[in-house]
TrEMBL record, chains A, B, C, D, E, F:
Name recorded for this polypeptide: Ribonuclease PH
Gene giving rise to this polypeptide: rph
Source organism: Roseovarius spongiae
EC number(s) from the headed UniProt entry: 2.7.7.56
InterPro entries membership: ExoRNase_PH_dom1, ExoRNase_PH_dom2, ExoRNase_PH_dom2_sf, PNPase/RNase_PH_dom_sf, Ribosomal_Su5_D2-typ_SF, RNase_PH, RNase_PH_bac-type, RNase_PH_CS
GO molecular function, one term: tRNA binding
GO biological process, one term: rRNA 3'-end processing
Length: 238, 238, 238, 238, 238, 238
């Protein structure tokens, strides 16, 4: 019934390949089916002005899509002269979600910037970015711990994200692009490995939904997050 | 226990004054406690290119804050040369939420733009903007119906929004600014008058939450929306 | 003969309501007929680089129009990505005019920013902004004097502004929008309460005028300023 | 008593050299003392959208300063990414002033763009730009008349501009930079050859002035305009 | 003697992997040592206005670097609000170089956009982009020919690029980043497979060079281009 | 055979007039036929951050065209809100070329900014800008040496530039606009007075060229540079 032939509660194939670029303090290519996102982590000693001297760390994120990551070519944002509303919204979400899983005291007064660049898009890019973003954040932190610059692990519980939606009247896990463009209701669910919620964004375009439906999607999301966290732990050796 | 002395499930005073500017097709000043937002509706015959010729209507929104609507002066966005990320995120939410409650076939091929400008801010400006935005949308539609340009009411169920959060460990309704700046978890809940969900955005900054806590906030939100819808109906004579 | 039925030398009704927002150090809504401008004053300890260390104070202004303050909706300048030429011209005029009436030594090394936002426009917004701007400047200074931070009053003579023009061949006081859009010659006259001139801007679009006509408009302007100053003094208790 | 040793009512030397660039439909270098402005006129068949089909012509102007036209180097506006407030204000003034002296019916539905670029600045650049701008406008119109595209002269009365101010307590004609930077009151006076007024902009920075002083400056300005118009007529053979 | 231990006339390892993204009409990852550039081709039916109706085709290019493709993180250009001077210069060069090798009549009135995004940088990114850009251009054209939309091959001679420079006093082929940052003279040589020149850009930073040295670098470049063209032909099966 | 009737190896008339503006530390108007560029040099004590404290000097350049320097009016870049790709490319070339001829140790830790503004364009503006740029750089340095601020001449060998191309199948020296717009191959050759090369940029638009042709153009360029250097030495009394 789903265009891909998947079961309602079936994720796409997940793979996370680390060490894909040599300069970054952490890097991976995360592939959720045909959605491919390159994530890198950069460690810097400076922090934003509003926490200078606080001893707390900061994690921030930026997001972009290569112009031809999509079916038809998108205008390059650097050319357009600004990041679009969707881009800004997504990168704020990535940063906020990852920060929720960080012990900023343990991280110490430094900033880690997570760059998420979509190489190929097929739905769910922001969820893939968060999931892959946590992996490269972890890799960067492991480097800091190995060097003795951080002594207590600030990342004890993974952060992962998955989208679910109501497609053709049925709750489905991990929407791909053909489903996403048809679904009247879809949500992004960001959770920790222990299934604590970090962010729920569930919206209807031109329709509405009930609390029951919301709970069905949350059940599916928990299942998806289990699979994603397993891949994260495998990739980081954690 | 709340800074304002309110009960955990107590809304601030709600008032909606209509007809506050003479040029707009609909206007109101919505006041939720000390949060004051001026909303106007503008009807135009043109629609965005992607629905031209479809017969469907469109509702869009823009949001702004006057520089001194806040405790300390904010930089004017027109001066800065662009709308910030938070502004873009909010105005997309307002437009999406209001569209979910509109029968776009009944509206017919025209666009209604909702402008929401914060005159004074004390927490919950986006929720006030959605709630007031629906009022001026309704007023504009009433004008179209009186003129016979629209014959079947495209707005049968009001759309309202309220924020709830976990403050000092307790679930509270309708966060004001002192609460909002301290709450580790807060959510915006957009619903129809019949309590169907349109959008849930619930996020944690530097912490996490459980599904139980989420359900407690949803219960509070339903209570708040009842009060807001009553004020909307009174203001529009609907 | 005037569209509004007013006498040639008759002002519209003037009202100034103070204390309209709780955060600003001074605030008012000035209404000149159907032109309504919200003015706020913000006191800051920093001054622009070019007077740092001089002991002198600074007054600056910004101006904006809400998108639907006008008959048809204007594009939001924050959206357009810059302030238009007219906006820039007006806010420079407001700042310059108010500074002319300030004893900058008495003010001391601090900056007061006057924000003037047009809620509803019906001609003469820049004059209303200057007149209301002086009121909130005065309120802010009164707060500084009460707190003992300023000891000698830097604002001894009010600053007010009115527009006059040649409409249908006749000199008229206080142009409203229907007159303004027809007048071949119009001027903005900024004066002190003692009728000293601060700025005269009198221009013809597609025509010219004589020195006699200029003097007739100046006579009318003096009459208008008397009424405005009375309202300013009443509003500030000065 | 004046830094330059000039009499109170003495203009600087005025020269207008035409035909200084080969591409423009009209060009001149106007020199008012050490202030040198290159003016060009460009004729185009298109007009702005708001007068399309009206049969009326349009005149518009742009203004710029070369980075090292001033004592210390100014930042290039193309580099800064926008025209500053002062630039915008000046080019709007030039366009408005020149249009006041044009019979737009006689000009016919075409646009003439006047570019005024300051090569060397020593005070009074906007007045030089208006005065030189009229010269190149006239040259362009003469070309149109010679070609038979315009049959009735739309420019019957020259437009010229001069600044006057109160320097060291005395009314002086044609302020140069050392005077301009010290003058508490200065004005720009734009008139026709027959001494009809087009625009008066007289402002005080940090002081005020009386109507008597205003009239003294107007008297001086009339004298200056006589000299400028003589130079304009000589340059255009009119 | 070279940091990498290569011979003076030794290229880095070249590999070109095609079909790396599913949406583009042509795609490849070109790797020249540690320099990795993702190239995609997009076919569109529209052409730029200046050749509309001419029957001629157009090829254009855009270039970008992922923020962490470099040793230390670069600011994202979409964030900065514009493409930097270096980016603009490079993408103009890529487009110009590829167009030189295209029979634009044979291509027909369509546009092919080549996007070159640097995934990892280690010197020579613009040359890799041109070399990989020709590969994806060829793949897109092969698709058009297979579909019968283009009948005569517009790409008969490959276009490839290599950098050479004078490093430690010696002419060397294919500079990597450590060499590039030290070389006083370096050049980019763009040629066809038959060794016709398309563009030579050879510049000295803080020094000069002789015609003899220029000829030595050209000799090296011809050798490098031979290797690159072999890889291009293998990748495209041409 | 050339549109201008010149011999294949004949330069246009070259003239360099110095001292054309009074504020700059060096200024000239360079005229290469109908191409006229105004060059100024500005000395500043500050240097870019990346060489602060190094004791080295810096030379940088900016380039602009007056809107009506060209046959049809170009849009003013300050109005467009950014410098176009061509402008950026040219000003980077000018700066790089001039720096190659400067002993930055002898110059000492100061910056000289060369502004090149095209007053009238007829092909070869970038070459004229470099040639005139060296003249004003020399004039500024002479002023520093006269004042004893620089003791050893940092400019011992002039830098000049000329364009050559293949026009109607023949190699020609110093392309004017009619030739430039037709030439399939053209190059810019920047050299010192002793004929050492600084930069060669030779590109084909829609065609290719051989090494022989390249050498023919280099021969012509050497001849042209001899004439330009003679004019530079005459203008600077060097």
């Amino acid at each position: 019934m789903r265009p891909s032939g998947r079961e309602l509660s079936e994720m796409r194939t997940v793979s996370i390949e680390t060490g894909v670029t040599k300069h970054a303090e952490g890097s991976c290519m995360i592939r959720i089916g045909d959605t491919h996102v390159l994530c890198t982590a950069t460690i810097e000693d400076r922090v934003p002005p509003f926490i200078k001297g606080s001893g707390l760390g900061w994690v921030t994120a930026e997001y972009g899509m290569l112009p031809r990551s999509t079916t038809s070519r998108m205008r390059r944002e650097a050319q357009a002269g600004k990041q679009g509303g969707r881009t800004v919204e997504i990168q704020r979400l990535i940063g906020r979600s990852l920060r929720a899983g960080v012990d900023r005291v343990a991280l110490g007064e430094r900033q880690i910037t997570i760059d998420c660049d979509v190489i190929q898009a097929d739905g769910g890019t922001r969820c893939a970015a968060i999931t892959g973003g946590w992996v490269v954040l972890k890799l960067a932190v492991q480097k800091l711990m190995k060097a003795g610059e951080v002594t207590s692990d600030p990342l004890t519980d993974p952060v992962a994200a998955v989208s679910c939606g109501i497609y053709a009247g049925q709750p489905v896990l991990d929407l791909d692009y053909p489903e996403d463009s048809e679904a009247g209701v879809d949500g992004n669910f960001i959770m920790t490995g222990s299934k604590r919620l970090i962010e729920v964004q569930m919206s209807a375009e031109g329709s509405t939904y009930s609390r029951d439906q919301m709970n069905q999607l949350l059940d599916l999301a928990e299942k998806g997050v289990d699979e994603l966290v397993a891949a994260q732990l495998a990739a980081t050796g954690a």
